[in-house]
Model the fold of this input.
Amino acid sequence: METEAELFWEKRYRAHRKWGERVNPLLAEAVEPLRPGTALDLGCGAGGDTIWLAQQGWQVTGVDIATTAVAKTLERARELGVGDRVVTEQHDLAWTFPAGEFDLVSAQYFHTPFALARSQVLRTAANALRPGGLLLIVDHGSAAPWSWNQDPDTHYPTPSEVSAELDLDSDRWRIVRSDKVQRTATGPSGETATVTDHVLQIVRTTGR
Ligand SMILES: C[S@@+](CC[C@H](N)C(=O)[O-])C[C@H]1O[C@@H](n2cnc3c(N)ncnc32)[C@H](O)[C@@H]1O
Done:
């Protein structure tokens, strides 16, 4: 049975057929210098990042709560000739997490209006990294005019607040970037706006 959260996201991906098909620039910037390995894309949406990573030679697992999103990601990956480098899995990450170890775990705008122990999910993600692997978290620091969240009282946790909540052991993980950036975002109908992003990059330095 579909939960309220699944229905909410499912409806959005059925309606916005083109939503999230482009790679996020902050992901591209962080990943370009890395040697391709295995990657996990948490909340992969319509697959813009998953497919871009596969095109760079990464073996990618794209995960989302919305069945339409993961189906669309895999379909586009096949159309673009990188289907052999992409696996998709439907998970409500509040309850289940994909198996395996990864060189990169990416959480791009992994936000939801529903209850989700996000820190717990991101801590599990940090534990799923191989030594030397990178956890890349990019969060909204402001709302675009087309965002589902137009609540003026929203607090956007800063990268320091997110890392404090993660509370990772500094003997095994190192924060390599924690800052805010502004960028021009493009909405579903091609409109643009300046938005703030919160960027947190954490490297796993040693194994268990
Ligand atoms: C704001 S969108 C970002 C999508 C994509 N990463 C991007 O940058 O375009 C958040 C994504 O997280 C997914 N999501 C929300 N809650 C989830 C959950 N509990 N488990 C897995 N995915 C979830 C949504 O379906 C949606 O695709």
About this structure: Residues 32 and 56 are 8 Å apart (CA to CA).
